[in-house]
Amino acid sequence: MSSSTPWNANPVIQEVTFKSKTRQSAAEKRRATIASWFSLESSDDDEGDIAEDPIDEEEIFDLIRSINDPEHPHTLESLMVVSQKQIRLKGNLLEVEFTPTVPHCGMATIIGLCIRVRLLRSLPERFKVDIIIKKGTHQSENAVNKQLNDKERVAAALENPNLLEVIEQCLSSADA
Amino acid sequence: MAEAVERAVGLWMLTQSNEDLSIINQEIEQGSTSLVELVKILGQYLTAEENETRVKGVTLLVDVVTKLPDTSFTRQSTRVINAFLITKLDTVDEVIPALKGLLRLSTMSTYTASDCKDATEQLLKFPMRAHVQSTRNVVFLLIDSFMTRHRAALQSLGKAFVKGYISLAENEKDPRNLLVAFALDRVILLEFEVSDFVEQFYDITFCYFPITFKAPPNDPYGVTGPDLVAALRNCLSASPLLGPPGMPLFIEKLNVGSPATKKDTLATVAVCLPVYGKAVAQTTADKLWDGLKIEIFQPVDVEVQDAALEVTKVLVQTCHPDESSLEGIGERILKTCLGHLDEPSTSQGQIAVKLVLALAKSSHHIANQVLQEVVPKLVALYETAPDTSVRTSVLAALAAILEAQEESSKLPGTPSPLEAYKDSILSLFVSAIKSTSTAEQGLKGISHLVRALSLETEELNFLIRNLTNVLLESRTTKDDLTPETVAVLRTLSTISPTAVEELALPPLFSLLPDKPPQQNEPEARANCILALVALEDLCLHPQLFSRLLVHLSTKVELLLLSSERANESVIAYAHALLKTVYTTLATKSLRGDVDIPKYMERFVPRLYYLFFDMLNKVGAEGLDGYQALISDAADIITLIVASSNVERQEPWVVSLFGAFDGKPSSITACHATLPDMPQFKPLEVNGNQAHDSLVALFTAGLIGLHPETPLPVSDVNELLASLLQVAVTSENAEKRKALAYAVSSILNKHANDCSKFIDIALGSFWTTRVMNAEVTIEQRIRGLGLWGSAVRALIVRNHPASLRLARQLFALFDDAEMAIHAAKTLGQLPNLQESSLTKKYHSVVRLLHAQRLFNAVIAEILEGFSPAISSVKSNAYLIAVSNLVSSVPKSTSSQAFDKLFPLLLRGLELPDLDLRSNITESLVAVIEGENLTNGMDAITSHLGALIPRLLRNTRVDRHAHMSMRLKVNAIRFLGSLAEKMKREDVQPYRAEVLRELQSSLDDPSRAVRKEAVLARSKWYKCGSPPKSALEG
C-alpha cells in the first residue's frame, strides 16, 4: 500500500494546534458559570444530565477528524480531507463528503472505507450514512462513490485481511 | 624463617593450594622474608628446563605479587621483578602470568618511568594475533595503566610507541577490548604526535563505524552497544586530522544507511564537525547538505529529521564562525529554505520553518542574516496571501520564530535580530487578530512577541487598546478567544501594569451597569458576563486587583445599601460581583501572591460592616434572602484570613469574638461606626433567630486561623461544648453547618488542649443525642452529623482517640432507622471535601490518616460480614464500604481491592444510584491505576458476574439523578477491561459487550455516547483477527 512515491508528496497541512472544541467548551463553561451567578443557581450541580443533547454534525466530525491518512503521518482533518462543513445531517440521513488531496489519489477508496467503518462502529444503527467524494475533486469520483455506498461491495472489501489491516491502522488514532 | 617459605613454595609447586600461598604472603608481609628472597628461592623453578615447572614458578611469583599490599614492595624488588617479567613476554606459556604481574606492578608507587619504558618497548612487539581475547585484554589494560600513570614515558618513546600501538590495536574485534582501545585511541590522538599516522588511525577507528553491536543476554562483562557507540564517537571526534578521510565515509553512511545508522551518523557528525574545523566542513559541506536535505525534507521519522536539523545547524556554525557573510553553504541552505517558504502552508513549507529555527539557533550573526531574509519574505507573503491557509501558516511561522527568540532575548547586550522588524510584525499580528480566521494564530504570535522583544510605551498602548477591542467585540463572534486575549493582556500587565489598568480596565468596567441587569435585558446581561469573565482572569497583578476590588466592592455597597430591602435581581448581581472577587482572589492565592494579607485590614472589616449595617436596616426579618451573598463574603474572608500570619490574626480573632458577642463595632471600628447591638449574640442558645444567618461569617473569620493563634477564651473545652450545644438545638440548617465547621476546625487545631471535651462532652453527646432512642429520628441524624464532623477533625490528625470513636458507629448498624446514616457517616469520615479541614486553612492533616482509618474499618467489616447477618446490617456494611472506597485516596483503596471486590460487586446492585456511581468510579480508578497487580486476579475471576452487572448499569433511566456519571463510569470501566485484562480472558465477552453497548451509542447524553464509542473501539481491538470489520 505505502509505495515509495506517495500520490501527493507535498500536501497542504492545516495546523490543528489543539482541538478548538475543547478550548471552546472550557470558555463556554466559564461563561455559563458566571451566567448562573446571575440567576443565583449553584453551578456545580450536575443536573445538566437530563437535557437532551442530540447527535449533531460536530459530534460526527469529532468521530472522523483524527483518523490517520493512509500515506501521511497526518490526520484527515489536518490534510483538510474532511471538515465539519462537509457533514450534512437531516434526521437519520447523514451525508459525509470528503476531499482527496489530489484528483488522482489512489487512496480515496481506502479513506472512504475508513470513514465508513468508523461510523458503522460509532453511530447508532438508525442512521443511514452516505459517504461521497466532493464533486469534481477526483478523476474516478463515480466509481469510488459507488464502491463506498454499496453494502455488498463494502462487506466484500472488508473481507480482505490486508485491506482491513490498513483500515485498522488508520483508525488506531481515531480516538485520540 | 626462610625455611618456612621454602617449604611452602615446595608444597605449592606440588598442590597449588591457597593455604601455602597465604603462608608465603604472610611471611613477606610481616617482613620475615622479602620478595627478592622469594625470587631467589623460586630460582630453580623459574629457570627450570621443564616447561610446566617454569610456568608454575612464574604463576606462583605473580600470585604472590598480586595479593601483596603496596607496602611490601621496595624499589629494588619492583625493578627486579619487572625486569624478570619483561623477559617472559616473548615466551609462549609464561606470558599470561607475566602480563598479569606487570599489570599489578604498574600500579605501584615504586614503579618508575624507566620500568614502564622497558616494559612498553617489549610489549609493543607483542604478537596480539597469536593470543586469545582475554590475554589481549590484559595487554590493553596494561597500556591503559601506563597511559594513566606514566604518560610522559610513553610520549618519550615517540613515533615508535604510536606505530607499535597501532599494530597492537589493529583488527581487534572483542567488544570489551575495543572499549579500552577506543579510550586509548582518543588519548593518543589528543596528546601524541600522530600526524604521520593519520591513515592508520583512520583504519583502526573508522572501520568500526557504525557500531551495530547488541550485547548478548547475560553478557558477563556488561558491555553494551551504547557504551561502544559513545566510546567510538569520542575517538572519532578526537582530532581534526581525522576530518579529511572521515567526512566522506560519514556522507556515504548517511546516504545509504538504515534509519538507525543514519541516526548514529548524524549524532556523530554533530559532535565531529566542530572539531574537524572550518576548512574540512567547507570542503565537504555541499555533499553533506545534499544528504541532510533528504533527511530533513523527506524524513524517515521525526528523530532522524531532528538529528539532521541539528547537524545542519552545526554545519553552518562551523562554516561561518565569524561575522562574515553566509557566502557558500549558508547561502545555499538559506536559498532552499526561502524556496520552500514560497508555499508556507505545504508540508515542505512547514519543514522549511523548522530549518529556519535550527539556523536561527546557531549563532547571533547567522540568526541575524537568516532572519533578515526570512522575516521580510513572510511579512510580504502575508500581505499578498490569496487565502487564509497561507496567512495562518505565516502567522504560525512568525510565532515559532519569536518563540525561539524568547530564550536569546534574555541575554543582555544582544538585541534580537527581530527588533528591526518589530513594527511590521506587530502591525501584522494586530491586523490578524481583527479577523476571526486568523485571530487565534495572531494572539499566539503576540504572546510570544511581548516576551521576545522589548516594546516602547506607545507600542504597548497600541497593543493593549487593540486587544481590549478584540475582547469587547468577542460578544459578537462565534469563536470565543477571550481566555487567549486575556492571557496576553495579563502578560502585558506584568510589563506595564499601569498601562493595562488605564487602558483595558475602564472599558471593561463600563460594561457593568449601576443597576442590576434584568431578565428582559439579555444584552446588558451578556455585557456583564463578558466583563466578569475577562476581569476575573485579568486582574491578578496587585495593582489591577486592588483596582478591581475597589470598583466591584463599591458597586456592591451601593447596590445593597441604597434600597431598604434588596430584590432578587439586586442580590444576583451583587452575588456575581462578589463571586468574581472571590475567584480572582482564589487564583491569586494559588499562585502564592503576597499582596493578599493586606486586605485583612483594608477589605475584611468593610465586608462585615456591610452585613451588620444591612442587619440593622432589615431588623427583625433577618437576612434570610441573602444566603448567597453571605456565603460569598464568607469565602472571601476565609481566604484572606488564612493567608495572613499569626501576628495579623491575633488582634483579629479578639475583635471577631467581640463582634459576635454583642459588639459588632469591635471589628468595624476602624472603618465606620456602628451602634452597639447588645442583643446580637448568635452564639448563645436561644439567641435571636434573625441573627442566625450571620454565624457563617463568624466561622469564616475563624477557620483560617493558624493553630498557634491564641483563641480569646478561658477554656477551649467549654467553647467547643457550647458551640456544639448551640448547633444541635438550632433549627437553622445554615447555622448548624457553620457551627459544625467551626467546631471541627477548633478541635483539629487545639486537640491537645481538648481532652476534657473529647472524653466527656463528646461521650455524653453520643449517648444523649445520637444513641438515645427517645429523641426523634430527625434530631438523632442531626446529632450524628455534628458528632461526625467533630470526629473527622480528630481522624485527620491521627488522634489516639479517633479510631475508637469511629468504631462506635458500628453500634448503630443494627438500628433499622439509623443504620444507613451511620454507615454513610462512617464511610465519609476520611472525606475532607465538604469540610474546613485542609492544609490551606492550616489544619493539622497527617499523612496516611485515611489509610489508617480505612484499614481499621475494612478489617472489622470483612470480619463481621457474613451471610448470617440481618439485611439491615449487611446493607449498612455495603454502604459503609462503598462510601469509604470513594472517599479515601485511590492508592489506599486499591491495596485492599482484591478483598473488597466481592462486596463492591454486590454494591453494584444497591438501589442508590449515587453509591453505584461512586463504586464504578472507584473501579475505574483501580483498573486505570498503576499497580493493578492485586486487582487483576480478583477482576479476572469475577468477570462472569461483573460484566452483566456493568452492562445493566449502562442502561439506567436517564431521568434519574446522577445517572450520567454512573453510565459514563460503567462504560469506561468496560472499555478498560478490554484494554487491561488478558485477551483470552475477555474475548468470550466481546460479542456481548459490543452488542449491548450499541444502545449507549444512542444515549441522549453526549458524554455517554463518547465513552461508548471509546469503549467499543477498545473491544474491537481486542478481537482475534476478525473475519469482518463489523462483527459483534
From TrEMBL, chain A:
Name of the protein in question: MIP18 family-like domain-containing protein
PANTHER family tied to this protein: CYTOSOLIC IRON-SULFUR ASSEMBLY COMPONENT 2B, CYTOSOLIC IRON-SULFUR ASSEMBLY COMPONENT 2B-RELATED
Pfam families: FeS_assembly_P
GO terms, biological process: chromosome segregation; protein maturation
GO cellular component labels: intracellular protein-containing complex; iron-sulfur cluster assembly complex
Organism annotation: Serendipita vermifera MAFF 305830
Keyword Calcium found: no
Family: Belongs to the MIP18 family.
UniProt KW keywords: Chromosome partition
Cited InterPro entries: FSCA_dom_sf, MIP18, MIP18-like
Domain (MIP18 family-like) ranges: 57-129
Species lineage: Eukaryota, Fungi, Dikarya, Basidiomycota, Agaricomycotina
Superkingdom of origin: Eukaryota
UniProtKB/TrEMBL annotation, chain B:
Keyword vocabulary terms for this entry: DNA damage, DNA repair, Nucleus, Repeat
GO biological process assignments: DNA repair; iron-sulfur cluster assembly; protein maturation
GO CC field: cytosolic [4Fe-4S] assembly targeting complex; nucleus
Domain spans labelled MMS19 C-terminal: 532-978
InterPro entries named in the record: ARM-like, ARM-type_fold, MMS19, MMS19_C, MMS19_N
Keyword Amino-acid biosynthesis: no
All residue ranges annotated as the MMS19 N-terminal domain in the record: 39-298
Cross-referenced Pfam families: MMS19_C, MMS19_N
Cell compartment(s), UniProt: Nucleus
Family: Belongs to the MET18/MMS19 family.
General function of this protein: Key component of the cytosolic iron-sulfur protein assembly (CIA) complex, a multiprotein complex that mediates the incorporation of iron-sulfur cluster into apoproteins specifically involved in DNA metabolism and genomic integrity. In the CIA complex, MMS19 acts as an adapter between early-acting CIA components and a subset of cellular target iron-sulfur proteins.
Name of the protein in its database record: MMS19 nucleotide excision repair protein
Organism: Serendipita vermifera MAFF 305830
